[in-house]
Amino acid sequence: MSVAHNAAAVLQARGLRKQYGQVIALDGADFDVRAGEILAVIGDNGAGKSSLIKALSGALVPDAGELLLDGKQVSFASPADARAAGIETVYQDLALAPAMSIAENLFLGRELRRPGVLGSVLRWLDRPRMQREAADVLAALGVHVRAITQAVETLSGGQRQGIAVARSAAFARHVVILDEPTAALGVRESGMVLDLITRVRDRGLSVVLISHNMPHVFQLADRIHIQRLGKRAALVDTTSISMTDAVAIMTGSLAVSTPD
Question: HSE (CB half, 13 Å, CA atoms) of 65?
Answer without folding.
Answer: 25
